[in-house]
Amino acid sequence: MKDSLCILKFGSETICPENTSWSQHVENFRKQIGNVISSKKEDMDFVVVSSGAAKLGRMFHGENMSNDALMASLGQPELINFWKEVVGPKVGQILINYVPSIDINSMETSQRIRKILSSLYDNIKTQQDKNIYDTIVANLGVGSIPVCNYNDSTDRIEIEGIDRLEDNDYNSGYVAELMRHYGNWENIYLVTYSNSPLCEITQDGQFVIPYVNPDKTPQEEIAKLCNGKSSSGRGGMKTKTGIHHWLVSNDIVDKSVIADTSSDLATVLGSFDRSVPSDKFTTFSKN
Hints:
By secondary structure, the chain is of the alpha/beta class. It has helices at residues 12-15, 22-40, 53-61, 68-87, 111-141, 156-160, 168-182, 219-223, 237-249, 265-271, and strands at residues 4-10, 44-50, 91-96, 145-150, 187-194, 199-202, 205-208, 211-212, 255-260, 282-285. The protein has a single domain (4-285), classed as Acetylglutamate kinase-like (Carbamate kinase), CATH 3.40.1160.10. α3 (53-61) crosses α4 (68-87) and α5 packs across α7 (168-182).
């Protein structure tokens, strides 16, 4: 286990190219992301949280198919193959199923049965959390890059956007919580790549917001700047900023960044050691 851990989150819109060929897209990712991970692996652990399975399923196997679960099933191998091309052959697939909250106290049964059910639910949730953490750490231990994604092929909750779950933005926060709770990394970082950076639009133009201190700027103020959802996927900029704000505010991650795909990972990682924020992407930090 290294001193630092970086969780990299990629939305569907960053995985599936619209204005470039697939081969060029893979090469761009290899240069901007894969080569940097390879050069930093001796000093830092990396975990990838990646959307894109259903969209890749349509891209490679048929645009006209309407079954999202089928597309996710067909696209998940394509997603893993993509990451193998980007970071190398040693990639571990980790599919996460959502365990929904259950209001056991409202059940019409005896207090004794409710207590048993509550204990059972807590045990199941805790065991799943620990299993996911253990599998991620096992991958890191053999030099593999863990690639986490919701199990969209069977988990209808994620596909249909039920409950509080929106997309892998929440998944990246969940993984960060697990790593902080069970692990002992000195520093944990989260980098979310989006199709656009967090910007403020004024009469003079559009400007990237370089820095957010959650202790000084409430999320409500940041949310006012967000203009809806990303071009694909369920999560939008309001969701992304809310997760980053909460994770840094609660000391789960030390620093986090929301960047667009033009931001080289080496530049993003370098910003964690500098006190002056970049004007190309948004850093969430208390210092």
